Amino acid sequence: MTPQPVVSSPDLAAELAIRLNEVAPDGFTVIAEHTYVAVRHNGEFIGRSGAAEFLESIEGIQNPTEAIERAARVILDTVQDYFSDASTEPWPGTRDQPNPGIRLRNDRLEMWFGDQDNPVLKLRPLDLATS
Amino acid sequence: MSRRRRTLRRVAVLASALVVSLGGVLVDSGTASADPLDGPTFWKKCTSNMRWPGNTGWVAADLLPNGFVFWTARDYLDNNGVWVADVFVGRTRVDHKEQSYNPHARISPVDLRSGYILHFVIQHTDTKGNKSFSDPAAGCLIP
User: Between vectors from CA B35 to CA B29 and to CA B38, what angle results, nearest 5°?
Assistant: First the structure.
């Protein structure tokens, strides 16, 4: 059997919220609300992504690696939209919106915006336990 | 008509009423399945400039040349309140979010599996508390 990464949806939401909050533009806060990653702007609720719940779906249980990658990509994409929609400025960077990128390798989730080789912004990687 | 026949007929009527009632709940609650075998909806192939209008607003989607699908939803009158959006590819949910303004997003080609139905299920509660739901046919066949 191939070892599979193990993380619960609340844990993934919490870890991604911490990392996104570390790089959030001024006035924005990113927090975890159970399985959701929520964004506030000057204290006002903008929106929240429930993509971490993919981990507890049938497909997520059958293929956790794919579910973690999908959830992380969707959360990064959604939070990026919340930042740029509320500020009416692209984020991160000052030109076009760079695509979010993710890579799960050896239980380590790497996340960035822009080209993988020359990212506009990198998030702190997340180490996942395996079983 | 014999008593036994009347009873059977009553059971049949009750059963069909139950089916109609369940059908209404599924549509109203926005939990209709995205499986092409589940219903009579004819799913057209995903293209650019797709739009599914309703009484209070619309859902639109665009298959872009780079393989992404960009989608959005709007209310004709009030785009604030609470929006809950779910996107499915087949039975797999590929997006789920709740927000205070009308949603939009892009779907990565990684999640767009050829031959599956891309399906949007959007609910909106406007600032006056009125609820509306996206057209159950808001979706398309991924080429």
Answer: 75
